[in-house]
Structure prediction request, 544 residues.
Amino acid sequence: MFDRFILSSSLLRRVTSTTDVLILGSGAAGLSAALRLAEAGFQVSVVSKGTLAGGSTLWAQGGISAVLDEDDSLENHVQDTLVAGAGLCDEAAVRFTVEHGPDCIAWLVEQGVAFTQEDAEQRGQRLHLTREGGHSHRRVVHAADATGRAVETTLSELAIENPRIRIIERSVAIDLIVDRSARRVHGAYLYDRGTERVQTVAAKAVILATGGANQVYLYSSNPFGASGDGIAMAWRAGCRVSNMEFMQFHPTTLYHRDSRSFLISEALRGEGATLHVPNSDGSVGERFMSRFDDRLELAPRDIVARAIDHEMKRLGVKHVLLDISHKPAEFIREHFPSIHAHCLSLGLDITKDPIPVVPSAHFTCGGVQTDLNSRTDIAGLYAAGEVANTGLHGANRLASNSLLECLVFAKAAADDLTRELPDMAEPPPLKPWDESRVSNSDEDVVVAHNWLELRTFMWDYVGIVRTSKRLLRAQHRVDLLRREIVEFYRHYRVTPHLIELRNLVTVAELIVRSALSRRESRGLHYTLDFPKTDDVAVPTILTP
Ligand SMILES: Cc1cc2nc3c(=O)[nH]c(=O)nc-3n(C[C@H](O)[C@H](O)[C@H](O)COP(=O)(O)OP(=O)(O)OC[C@H]3O[C@@H](n4cnc5c(N)ncnc54)[C@H](O)[C@@H]3O)c2cc1C
Prediction:
């Protein structure tokens, strides 16, 4: 880190670039912060580890919640969010988010995001609002069933055209550069996938917008890059991380060798699809939801996910079956065209066959602890979007509140920086990445093996239903893996997989520690050893 650096003019020349604000991540949070800062006149660099539109934002289907209907009220949205969060939300953060919702939607409309309108005659007048689970009113703005795509592609195009925004694609941030004595950030090291070299980027301020950590589990609805890099980097830099035990699982993701992260929408269950265990020959077996909840397949997400997990663990099977084939083929094709087409492309005809499904890690409620200005514990370092724990979600996320959180807290960071940047000093000269004592690895199998091992035991021991014994087992394995990975990292040149693995093991450690310290069940954290919910809700805050 910076306090160990010896600066010289030769080192100085090797600093590749300097910018006002370095934004790590190009999803809804990163791009909206970039556009707002550019609008305020600052030079911004936006980094994405793959292509610009490669994060979770692109895949968001449902929409973005905001109070826009005259029958609705800000108070209703606040109360719905507090109820979903099971007593653990920070009410100030909830009110702040909800109050800024309508403005953020208006901003997206100004940027040109084509949300679905109420009807053709009223185009441009009034947005169509849907209602989702947990919301007492219609308040979800959407662009058909591909809201994230509409947001991400519109914002990416604007960012590419903006002369104040420099796009750095296919570059993986390895670590933040922090002056530990001053507790101030000065930039970051980026691994360039093209040149396979590490660049040093100096900045007056850095915004972490790297998304969630859901790839720490074997099954995830998220793209592969969701490896918790921002959370791990912030932790190493000295930031507090909170509420990491609250990982949200989606009950039904397609289980298929060639398609790891395709969601099978809850709408199928809404239209009568039933859940079954597979028989030993793979055929449709017992329908099981009646053993768990009177609402059967229409029970809330968490209950369905827990029931599936229970059956899979009880029977030792890799998936359960979701069957809608009793409905007319025409109905299925008409109502679920994209699910039907996607499954058919994999050789599965859902008008005739049951769909193999597993729950999958979907959303990281916890993250880097931030305040209402999106500031972290390190001066100049901000966090916005799924990487952050603003206090909005508490112990469980209300549907469609996450894109809203990205927009509101990206704006908060941009507003704060607009006030602060003029008085911020230029970053000092920084030491470039030192590779003089490492060599190329001849054992990439170690990285591949550890990736799989980590994600498998996190799934088996730290998943939807937990016990203290399983958590302790996981903690033991995390310790062993962490030592092995740190050793590997010290001796070999970094690669994108090694960078992600190092971050995943850190995130796994934070999740397990948080889960072990919570001696109750609340929201998404459900443990057989402490099934009751305490009267008083206390967040889990880990300090490095
Ligand atoms: C299938 C699916 C459906 C969803 N549906 C909804 C919905 O309907 N409504 C809703 O509100 N939410 C939904 N969500 C959740 C929501 O999409 C995410 O919470 C949100 O998009 C996160 O945005 P973000 O900007 O924080 O991060 P992301 O959009 O995930 O972007 C992360 C960015 O960080 C970059 N990055 C990560 N690590 C590094 C690194 N080390 N170096 C450089 N760059 C890095 C990535 O390349 C990417 O650009 C859904 C999520 C999924 C997966």
In short: Residues 1-14 have pLDDT under 50 and may be disordered. The CA atoms of residues 482 and 505 lie 6 Å apart.
